[in-house]
Design brief:
Elements (H helix, E strand, L loop, with lengths): L1 H21 L5 H19 L3 H9 L4 H65 L1
Helix pairs in contact: 1-2
Pfam family, one: DUF2304
Protein name: DUF2304 domain-containing protein
InterPro entries: DUF2304
């Protein structure tokens, strides 16, 4: 029964990720991670004895301990990847804010120069 639940869960994850990709709600680089997770769940559902074999091969006492260790490693990997993406986004926001401030200062300088030139042109026409 657990194997069937794993297969159904994997199918739901794959369908949901593909739907999000098609509707442009999820970028490809994030979809790959979720598709790999779904395939791992699918393989575990199709071959339920795989966890026991891995448990023996790795010297872990219980398959559930191996599953929890794998889940913790996966979550740490996702957290690290998202931290990396967030750092890049923060750098981009900082760069764009600096560029915006420079452009605003240049715009204000040019506006001031245009105002002075218009004032000077108005004074010149007033003298004539």
């Amino acid at each position: 029964m657990i194997a069937i639940a794993g297969i159904v869960l994997a199918a739901i994850i794959i369908a949901f990720v593909l739907w999000m990709l098609l509707t442009r709600r999820l970028r490809e680089k994030y979809a790959v991670l979720w598709l790999v997770i779904a395939l791992a769940v699918l393989i575990a559902g199709i071959f339920p004895g795989l966890w026991e074999a891995l448990t023996v091969a790795l010297g872990v006492q219980l398959p559930s301990n191996l599953l929890f260790a794998a889940a913790i490693l996966l979550l740490m990997g996702v957290a690290l990847h998202l931290s990396w993406e967030l750092s890049g986004a923060e750098e981009e926001v900082r760069r764009l804010a600096e560029e915006s401030a420079i452009l605003r200062a240049e715009s204000e300088t040019l506006s001031e120069r245009v105002r002075r030139l218009e004032d000077r042109a108005g004074e010149d026409q007033g003298e004539r």
